[in-house]
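Re-run with default settings, no changes from the original entry. Doing this only to confirm the output is reproducible before filing.
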Amino acid sequence: MSPERGSVVARVQTDFGGVLPDLRRVQTSRLDPRTLTSQSYAEGDGRGRASFETTFDRHAGLVTLRQGKDEAAAPLTTEYHDPVGLLLWLRARAAAQDGGPERSYAHLTGGRVLIQRLPDTQIEETDAYGYYLRPGNAYVYVESAAPHRLLRLIQPTDFGLVEANAQAATRRPAPNEKRRRRGGKGD
């Protein structure tokens, strides 16, 4: 996640394989920094033009969806989230409201998403808020204490469940530390 020209930009790269087909999906979400609602969203393989794009033009009052050569536009009547932006919005909401209400809704271009709070739990000995999202039947777990990391996402697919888990940050040695340990410069 990074600031970029009045927006927050989040990029997620997922490399599938194993029992799933070998496939790379890159999702890029551009969000309003104040509301974390979507300004644009794109999906692709990361090597060229996105295979799917959505733009939310507040000045023109239009939502435009592009998939391949097909394009459709509709009036922009509400604030929307995209799949990546929705996760970041849940994270910010958890930080601001101690996990948020039991039930709420968010709008994606495909329709309204019910967000249902689950009982608080622990993920890898870390206290977490849980959410169940429908449609999609996804489970999202957010660390209840700062920095409110996304800890786990469980998403059903045509190939079975896909589970993503946060990993503890590991400290990498500085370049000079590596040289010292190997007996190089800096001894």
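The chain has two helices and 13 strands. Confidence is low (pLDDT under 50) at residues 169-187.
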